[in-house]
Amino acid sequence: MSIILSLLLLQAPYALPGETAVDPYVADNRHAGAAPFEGDGMAKAFGGQDGIRRIVDRFVAINFADPVIGEIFANHDQVRLKRTLFEQFCFILNAGCSYTGRDMASAHKDLGVQKADMNRLVETLQRAMGEEGVSFQAQNRFLSKLAPMRRDVIEK
Amino acid sequence: MTYLRPLLLAALMLAALSPQQGMARPIRNGGKLLLTNGITSLEGASGGGLTPWAVIAGNETSDGIGLSAHGTLVEVKDYDYQSAGVAIGIRDRIELSYTHQDFNTNEIGAALGLGKDFAFSQDIFGAKVRLAGDLVYDRLPAIAVGVQYKNNNQGAIVRAVGAKSDKGVDYYASVSKLFLSRSILLSGTARLTKANQMGLLGFGGGKQAGHTLQFEGSAAWQLSRRIAIGGEYRRKPDNLNIAREDDWFDAFAAVAISRNVTATIAYADLGSIATVKKQRGVLFQLQTAF
Ligand code: HEM
After folding, report:
1. Fewest CB within 10 angstroms: A138, B124, B140, B180, which?
2. At what angle do helices A136-146 and A115-131 cross, to 10 degrees?
3. Whose CA is nearest to atom 14 of ligand 1?
4. Domains of chain A (ranges plus CATH)?
5. What is the pLDDT of residues B142-194, one digit of tens each?
6. Is domain B4-22+29-289 annotated with CATH 2.40.160.40?
7. Chain B interface includes A78 (CB < 8 A)
């Protein structure tokens, strides 16, 4: 199964079956926007891949339903976002994944994200991480990797 | 010293007038992360309780305008103190504040010949500009400069205790950063001041008439989204012949009760004030911000 998947990934890094097509790009871990943590401490703090998957699924669900930022997510590919966000989080947390999504600037181009939206997203992520029992200190450590990406995400 | 005020004013005007990112978009108020507007320092600038931080009052981001109001009580051994004020934050860039301070001498007033329950009071108008950086997101820490124009209401009496003037201006620069990877906020401020006990005992004195450079700092540890604890230090000048002035310390806990209300409780050691030593006690503050 994983062999087929990785073959699929090699051949078609843009979109998997069930996802909306995206413009071609070359997959690269550097697109995740941050170097992974060292060691397995952070992966453990997030409950490994299973925990990360639950956090991402919940996070994406909260974002789509959110009264403030839900509008920005509406009509975007939730299936893909759950996959690529999981890969990004898993890669950065050093839980054993590669990131095959787009870089942050391309992924958020023309979304019109403002600083208040970014802060809102931090809060929805805090909620998702909190529900999974990730300690506040570990949450902030993870956020410290995402924070510098705001530059690429918000509308200039 | 005299050239500093026009210089800072010019910087303020420039920052206000220069086209900024987001200028073209409609105003959008609110949106700051909890606690990142800080609390209100005794002199009205947003920051810690004793010292400003390089943050701007209100809950706005660079897309909006924010407001805050606060009331502070300090009860130390022999004195009590109240202040209240308001501040406006413009595009998370410029802060303008007004605060009124009352310092009640209680029994000590009689001993000093001022009369029991004599109160010193002053009005403080503040302006602060965040020049660069960001408290949370960017690698560059938030960097701000500010001025505080202080007008003491007991001119004759502060001169009688040896102050040179009943008016003074403080100039300060602050650098502040929340290190997310450690959940720790560090902030440092350099202040040029000639104020005696913030100006409540006037400005300048027999030992030192003019401005001196003083350092202040805060360290805070964020325990949760809503709670931070920490400590502060403020170096003070010692200008008056008759009353020694000590550096200040506090240990505080700040709680974001809601998106719009932050409560702070602190233990403060304010040292010797108006000839009476060991002024220790509690500080309590409620701040509301939008
Ligand atoms: C540093 C913070 C952020 C990170 C790390 C991040 C991460 C990601 C990732 C990994 C993707 C998928 C890229 C891909 O599939 O190729 C994505 C897409 C997306 N993000 Fe973010 N994001 C951040 C901030 C935001 C904010 C603040 C918003 C809006 C409030 C937002 C809205 C979206 C939307 C709507 C998409 C889907 C784009 C599409 O379908 O083309 N993101 N983000």
Report:
1. B140
2. 140
3. A101
4. 25-153 (1.10.490.10)
5. 999 999 999 999 999 999 999 999 999 999 999 999 999 999 999 999 999 99
6. yes
7. no
